[in-house]
Amino acid sequence: MIRRTIIILVSAVLLAACSTTAGRSVAEEPEIYPDYKGVTVPFGIAPLDFAVTDSLVSSIDVSVSGMSGSLRSRGRSYTRFPMRRWHRLLKASAGQTLNVTVKAKKEGEWITYEPFSIHVSQDPSDFGLVYRKLAPGYISYSKMGIYERDLSSFRERALIENTSFTGCVNCHTSNRCDPESFSLHIRGAHGATLLRAHGALDAYDTKTDSTSGFCVYPYWHHSGKYIAYSINTTRQAFHEGPDKIIEVFDHASDIGVYDVDNGKLLLPPSLKGDHKWETFPAFSADGKTLFFCSATPRPIPDSLSAIRYNLLKMEFDPATGETGKVIETVLDAEADDKSVSFPRPSYDGKYLMYTLSDYGNFSIWHHEADLWLLNLETGETRPIDEVNSEDTESFHNWDSSSRWFVFSSRRDDGLHTRLYLCHIDENGVCAKPFMLPQRNPKRYYSSLFLSFNAPEFVNHPVPFQTHKAARLINSEDRTPFK
Amino acid sequence: MKIYLKITLAAEFLCATFLLALGVPEHLVFQERCQLFLWTGEYFHEVISVPGGLSDWLGRFFTQFFLNPWIGAAIISALLVAFQRLLLGFFEKVPLWLFGLTILPVAILCAFYTNENAMLSAVIALILSLLAAHGVSRINDRPLRMIVAIVLTPLLYMACGPLSLIFLMALSVRDWKAAFIGLPVLFLTVLAATWVFQYPIKSLVGGIHYYRFLQTVRPEPWYALVAATFPILLRRFLPKDGSSLVNAIVVAVSAIVSLLIAVRPVLDKNINHQKEETLKYTILSQNEDWNGIIEAAEKKWPSLSPVSVACVNLALAKTGQFPDGLFKGFQNGPQGLISDKKVDFISPLAFAQVYWALGLVDSAQRLVYEAQESIPDFQKSSYCYKWLARTNRVNGDITVSEKYMEALCHTLFYHKWRPSDDIDKISSSRLTVKDMVSSDENIHEVLSLLVGRDSSNTMARDYLLAYDMLSLNLDGFVADYNATHKSREVVSIAYAEALALAWARDHRDFDGIPWTLPDGITDRCVSFFGDRGANRPKGAMKNKYGTTYWYYYFYHGK
To answer: What is the ipTM of this complex?
Structure first.
């Protein structure tokens, strides 16, 4: 009797554990969020959890399989791939394609969708990302911070938040993904530029007698000896029509190069003055060229939509920190009634990625802004159609191998910026980008009213001394730029 | 508990409720407007993950009900009485003098809560800590009691913040050794917190969310904590029963001092006139209680802040009394009509209403967003979320609009809210000039464009003309009036006065005046100039002509 009971119980459990997902198949792929269908990912990436967007779906059963193994996730409407098994599968599947089969229970019936693929690249990506998270607002700002995200997990840690001081965390960058050298600008009552160089963190006052404002957009020279900055007088204006709400523009801007070892701000005469507005400096991969954007000043606000930035370059001597006298136009965007912003040379020296918009230089608020790729060897330039969407694509950065890049996009809802990562091969062909993975991404992103901003790769955890930084910011002491 | 103590506690509850509900009702409603309480795990986790988080979460929970100021006042009063009751619970016998001493911390906290930025988390932190002390005091096994006290100390700091110090102080009544050992544990906990959490040390020591301004540590909760320790410390030294005279004196002095402490901020609010006036009119405006605004203005016209004047002007427009009601009271320039200069968490919300009513949806959205982003403790606002759902929907950003509505679905009182249908009327009349940028500097241009876009936008036309009048720009007024008036239009009194004045500047009489003005206007204008020419005192001019545009034109600001 007891034996029979046990057999019945065990059978019942086994039956319950067996797949009850037999049902009909449909010749279409499932609608999922985020859209990870056909994306290419690095093998160390965190699980690409996704949700089935059909609101009638009550359960899902998802399997991910490749030549080297498989794993499974079952849930109500979103996946929760086990971290370790995911990493094992992806590592074993580097260079291969995984098939993702989604079965969904809809109105009592199981439906098996056409499998979609996820390509696992053999190219590893860097350790993580550093970005700012803040509300896509106007003048006032509430809580914001600089955060580091480990790309192999969902772990995000706050490097610094403005709960520890009164002010705003602004532009930040590391030296070619190496956070041992790090620059961070703080705005507000305790304004400063925090510089971490040669292992030491210090707070600087970057305004000098010769400059009109603070050093804002930084770009490290790969040697770590220089940082190119733009010195901007930035303003905002607000539209009164439904297509656009904010315009951010410069009343004036120049470029300077900070000599880190000597503590001196070098101001190339050809990049100073009111005759042109220069901004967004970027060193070439070999450090011998300084790229930047430049526009002819025009009256604001009447001629706001006529302000267009071209991409220019000049020689740079790393030994002396001096710039050449000749300025060359790399891209005459103005001739095409367009404007260039955020030039970012790849670290292998082959390409330069930039954002192109109709006018202005703060392209995140321009729905038409797209990413373009300039081949530095051939001079050819093209829109990255495989990456661009109907909405804003903007601020982008390369990883240290130049095989991956991260960019900001507002394709999700038109307002809140989300991060996408994309693989690019040595021929400049981009794969389908994928959204930064999150656990329960639908819930995460739908309840997140913050934008990701200024993302960049870092090749190891940022050695940022948070409390020292807060103390420096809150103190009055500033080392002046000479 | 003795019956007289119960009656006294009940009386305290009623006194505090009436004091708060009648003294500072706008402050209570304002509290609810400065938060968005979500019934989600993420929200709970976000709030409790800083020191004092649990008391903060509970405080925000109760603040939801401050929609009704009487309920809000009752909740605060109940919490204050609960605090006192818990304090009394540590004493086996409660002589009257002891009871009298416990009124003092309650009064201090009551005074604290007349401040619109005082957060409930402070009193809840004290309550939770006292509850914990009660629980631990009941443990008879001494070593176990000590261990539990040591373990609870850091947990209470995380749950309640630094006011959890009262746990140790209350515990000392039963077990002073456990309390004494708890002190260094608390100190080490706070020290560890300075390394773990990104808040200034003074906030981690003084309390993060006891006051809305994160960088400010208000002393009142600490005064209350200190006052609460008097009976604890004194009970060992003073008799368990006092003489009738001593009891009576202590209670009387305590009650009088407490009354003065509690009532003083309500009286003091009359010192900060500008803030109170702004808050009062802004809340009425947020409630869209236009008649309420008119009634308040008729009793006492606001004069201290452009925000409150703007609320009155909007109410006049909404009730069809614009522009004739404009000069019934104080006006001081166009910034009392429409402005986007001031960015804080109160003023922009009033002006957002004006922009919205005009059809300037982007500006309304911007001001609401700015107000929300200016909330000092970084909370969001359910009131602002409703507005942003509305404005984004008009802008065609349906996904963003639904994002806000989805968030509101997780609230207690707004989960069924949906934007009303009349927003479709707004979207049809609004500006679509693509690269029009608006600011205080070009508001006149924007208003002109609005009127040109849609002649049925009578509010835009009235505001355009009022803008000219309040800017003392008579030439502009005449040009705009001529461009926008309709042939059979009955000229309002205020416009007629401005037209008469414009004519009188350049003409000796009103013969040939091109506008048909209401009877009596020209005669009165002549009379005004006659009296002015005779240098009649300003007071007399105000008595006779104070509600005219002429008086404003020549005497405002003087």
So the answer is: 0.91
